[in-house]
Write a structure and sequence with these properties.
The complex is a heterodimer of chains A (about 80) and B (about 350). Chain A is α+β, with helices and mostly antiparallel strands and about 80 residues long. Chain A is about 20% helix and about 40% strand. In chain B, the strands form 3 sheets. A 5-stranded parallel sheet of chain B has the order 2-1-7-8-9. Classes of the chains: A alpha+beta (about 80), B alpha/beta (about 350). The structure holds iron/sulfur cluster.
Chain lengths: ~80, ~350
């Protein structure tokens, strides 16, 4: 229940948003965040967006890591 | 960017693992205090990637695991009142109380609904005006703002048949208690989603007072390995700092809107943690304006005498003094299908994570 999962905002109506989580579209409350807009990624926890994910920050840090350690080659199970 | 797969990049992971091997020379014990971390660490096999110098301990970061048996007994007593719907996160229903569990009560006809969010519980209350809906409000700073937002919504809707039984807790007092009680740890892998709300600054006091490194971490393998690397670097250079390795989601100041909603609705109270006992000002109760939503005050019920399960060492595991495999019942009398203690119930519990990924 502690899990918070990155989900993408598809649309917003008042304080509620539809967010994409894997292949599902679910409802999320935006009561706890400010300035969320469609296309943003949020951390979703028990039905609430608890924080926006800072795209620029994420990009910069990944680029830094890639510079040090190499290009992307994803696998899920280590 | 999907913010998941990128952080499972094999080259980055390998690179970080190599750096850790090169940097770590002295034995170091690190504790993660978030159930989500416990789960990720076991799922991705992080311990097997690390040099022998590094040991990882699980702390009290699974809210279900630190919940007092008496809380479960209280919920059961409320459930038995009749004309009541208990709305709860799924993890909680199988946690053993003194003589029963919510799941067992369901089998004997008590009305328990599993919900994903407090908002579902509020809908239930609106749909069932003739019944009292009681939401079991459990979780750390990550979850408490949602409960607070739910209370504001219920107040706005003037729902007379909705209340919560709160056992919300906050993390830093427990992290202090662990160090005070003498657990030998050299650094904290700080809970990223608690910090998303509170801000990384929440851990500054701990660094200052206890001279212990604190690095806020995300939940993917490269996140955790970065945090571990930063803690090892600190330790090897005899320094202790607060660092944030999860900047994409955690700001120094945190989510101030969520903090404001939380403090509007809740105030601190002393709270009982399984394994620790009472930790001063580590829990959250509703402020007096919202007392009409407090099931504790709204309903007087008889709670059965507390009976703890003998042989379960959850308490010591939560304090970082023992590992699940040290428990005689682990994997034998106690399994996820038949849990003896709370640490085996929740997916985020150390015993359940060990059972699932490590045996
Ligand atoms: S294995 Fe079961 S009985 Fe042993 S400490 Fe864990 S939860 Fe308790």
């Amino acid at each position: 229940m502690c899990l918070s999962i990155p989900a993408k905002i598809i649309s917003i109506e008042g304080e509620m948003a539809k967010v994409e989580l894997g292949n599902n579209i679910i409802n999320a409350s935006l009561q706890l965040v400010e300035n969320a807009k469609p296309g943003d990624y949020v951390l979703l926890h028990t039905g609430f967006a608890i924080e926006l994910i800072d795209e620029k920050e994420a990009e910069e840090r990944l680029n830094l890591l890639r510079e040090v350690y190499g290009d992307i080659e994803t696998y899920d199970q280590l | 960017m999907k913010h998941i797969s990128e952080y499972r990049d094999a080259k980055i992971v390998k690179g970080l693992v190599e750096s850790i091997h090169q940097t770590s020379t002295k034995p170091i014990a690190l504790m993660e205090v978030c159930g989500g971390h416990t789960m990720s660490i076991q799922k991705f096999g992080i311990p097997s990637l690390l040099p022998e110098t590094i040991s990882l301990l699980s702390g009290p970061g699974c809210p279900v695991c630190v919940t007092d048996i008496r809380y479960i007994d209280h919920a059961i007593a409320l459930a038995r009142r009749g004309n009541t719907i208990i709305a709860t996160f799924g993890d909680l229903i199988r946690v053993p109380g003194s003589t029963s569990s919510l799941e067992k009560e369901m089998a004997s006809g008590v009305n328990v609904h599993i919900v994903y969010s407090i908002l579902n519980a509020i809908e239930l209350a609106a749909e069932n005006p003739d019944k009292e809906v009681i939401f079991l409000a459990i979780g750390f700073e990550t979850t408490a703002p949602g409960t607070a937002a739910g209370i504001l919504t219920a107040a706005q809707k003037q729902l007379p048949n909705f209340s919560i039984l709160s056992t919300h807790k906050i993390m830093p007092p427990a992290m202090e208690a662990i160090v005070d009680e003498g657990a030998k740890i050299d650094g904290y892998i700080c809970p990223g989603h608690v910090a998303a709300i509170t801000g990384a600054k929440m851990f500054a006091g701990l660094v200052e007072k206890h001279k212990i490194g604190c690095v806020v971490s995300g939940f993917e393998p490269s996140d955790l390995l970065q945090a571990i690397l930063q803690l090892v670097v600190q330790f090897e250079s005899n320094s202790h700092k607060l660092e944030n390795a999860y900047q994409r989601a955690v700001k120094m100041e945190g989510n101030q809107k969520a903090q404001a909603i939380m403090t509007q609705v809740f105030e601190p109270e002393d709270s009982y943690w399984r394994g620790f006992g009472v930790i001063p000002r580590s829990g959250l109760r509703l402020k007096s304006e919202f007392q009409s939503f407090d099931a504790k005050l709204k309903f007087q019920v008889d709670i059965e005498p507390t009976r703890e399960e003998k042989g379960c060492i959850c308490g010591e595991i939560l304090k970082g003094l023992k590992k699940p495999t040290d428990c005689k019942l682990f994997g034998k009398a106690c399994t996820p299908a038949n849990p003896v203690g709370a640490c085996m119930v929740s997916n985020e519990g150390a015993c359940a994570a060990y059972f699932k990924y490590k045996r």
